[in-house]
Design goal:
The protein is an alpha/beta fold. The chain is built from twelve helices and nine strands.
Length: 310
């Protein structure tokens, strides 16, 4: 049975890391990206990846990251495992805990990762649920630091579009780091109310129906697709609801002159973002995508091994 140093730790949402640990994770990711050698801290360890949603960036960045740290990966899609045939998740967690050293889970309901974490004796990492997408926003925070410095507490951020798992994760990041966050969401598409309320306890949060109001004077503008996986039957209704929420050059002109544009990808040019933005000088989307690799490697060090560079 795999053994693990110290107490088992999970990463299901950004607030699972206290602020010093979150800042340390970003610092370590920055050093990893710069080429600092970390040897093979996951040598002899195996990570199982349970993916119930399709993926490009998430799967590749996690698999490559684990292997760069010396570990190995077992990938399980729904069609490859008993999870896809309805096996009790608690049983899956107990069994996999006897085979592997960590679980990475990309799924629909957030309660699934919570169950796996509750019943597993190994670290569980949330690679995406319908509620939050924490690893993506870790990469976004690193991208912000690369452009505006390590202290993000005074860097205003705008979110334009659906109050989805990305918006919820930005709220969680603002809660931990205290930066101003402005969200423009259509009526009926607000973020999770509990996550919004908690973020307001430690950050200046504005929720508006007006993208121009949200973007005015910010340094970071974010968006995401209007119809996520599992919402395809809502597409026509969503296209109507989000009319006027496209991030265009005109909208970007309301932000600071040094503002950057972020998108977790894939981007639908001509829907949530104008091609002139996602392919233009504001865009940092490919730096952002690369940074998934570095923050996730740093996360594995945080959860699974002692930091050799305190």
């Amino acid at each position: 049975m795999p053994t693990h140093p110290g107490d088992k730790r999970d990463f299901l949402a950004i607030p699972d890391l206290e602020t010093p640990a979150l800042m340390g994770l970003l610092d370590r990711a920055r050093r990893m990206k710069a080429g600092d050698s970390w040897g093979n801290p996951l040598a002899g360890r195996h990570v199982a990846m349970i993916f119930r949603k399709s993926s490009t960036r998430t799967r590749v960045s996690f698999e490559v990251g684990v292997r760069q740290l010396g570990g190995d990966v077992v990938f399980l899609a729904d069609r490859d495992s008993q999870v896809g045939r309805g096996e009790d998740l608690a049983d899956t967690a107990r069994v996999l805990s006897r085979y592997v050293d960590a679980l990475v889970v990309r799924t629909f309901g957030h309660q699934e990762v919570e169950t796996l974490a509750a019943y597993g004796s190994i670290p569980v990492v949330n690679a995406l649920t319908d509620l939050v997408h924490p690893c993506q926003v870790l990469a976004d925070l690193l991208t912000m630091q690369e452009n505006f410095g390590e202290d993000l507490s005074a860097v205003p951020v705008a979110w334009v579009g659906d109050g989805n798992n990305m918006a919820n994760s930005w709220l969680n990041a603002a809660y931990r780091l205290g930066f101003p966050l402005r969200l423009a969401c259509p009526e009926g598409y607000d973020p999770d109310p509990a996550i919004l309320a908690r973020a307001r306890s430690n950050a200046d949060i504005l929720l508006t129906r007006d993208p121009a109001e949200a973007v005015e004077g910010v340094k970071v503008v974010n968006t995401d697709v209007w119809t996520s996986m599992g919402q395809e039957e809502e597409n026509e209704r969503r296209m109507a609801a989000f009319h006027g929420f496209m991030v265009t050059p005109e909208l970007m002109s309301r932000a600071r002159s040094e503002a950057i544009f972020l998108h977790c990808l894939p981007a639908h040019r001509g829907e949530e973002v104008d091609a002139r933005v996602v392919d233009g000088p504001w865009s940092r989307v490919f730096d952002e995508a690369e940074n998934r690799l570095h923050v996730q490697k740093s996360l594995f060090v945080e959860l699974m091994v002692n930091d050799p560079h305190p």
